[in-house]
Amino acid sequence: MLRDKSLIPLSHQHQRALALCVRIDRASPIVESDLPAWHAEIGQIFQTEIAIHFAVEEEIVFQAAKIFSELNSLVHELLADHAWLRQQFAQVHQLSSAEVRELAQRLSGHIRKEERQLFERMQELMSPEQMAVLGPKLEDALKKSAESCLLPNPKTRLRSAK
Fold first, then answer.
1. Could you report the per-residue pLDDT of 106-126, keeping only the tens digit for each?
2. Please, which residues have CB within 8 angstroms of residue 43's CB and are 6 or more apart in sequence?
3. CA distance 131 to 127
4. Percent helix / strand / coil, the chain, rounded to 5
5. How far apart are CA 114 and CA 81, in angstroms?
6. Rg over CA atoms, the chain
């Protein structure tokens, strides 16, 4: 299903987070000497974008979804995902290579659940007017998020296949 324009800013952020997950997956197992660079990049992305993204989803999107009883269990799952992910991001500098990979896998799964289940179903259940109300709220709330193009450092960028 084509993404409603009101949800596109969140979907763009999802794409950037998925790109990080792909890079982590392709780098795994991460060499011990590269781990501090990954920790720094993941921590920076969390602070500048993901933390704000989670708050916006919880305050605006999840609240809008909760008016539909069939979405309540999904919203609770997504909130539990946010809690686990926040905990991992808070201790990112202590995560092992395997734990960084698990974080990326869980984040990727979470994003796909939001895109494929929550957003799709919201678009089916909500009227165009209800969806249109979300757009400006999301846009305004996401202004707090840094729209920076964080470039991977040499240790975290994708390397060509050998």
1. 999 999 999 999 999 999 999
2. 89, 92, 93
3. 6
4. 75, 0, 25
5. 11
6. 16
